[in-house]
Hints:
Blueprint: H1 9-14, E1 17-21, E2 24-27
Amino acid sequence: xxxxxxxxxxxxxxxxxxxxxxxxxxxxxxxxxxxxxxxxxxxxxxxxx
Length: 49
């Protein structure tokens, strides 16, 4: 585990995580999919092509 404060916003963006609540990180998928999420994270990428 890592403690809070070890990641910068840039680092989080690079690994496609965002902090939804203090200490809670959510994987937001590939960089090209960083638009606002209104669909399930688990959707099949082929559906959007």
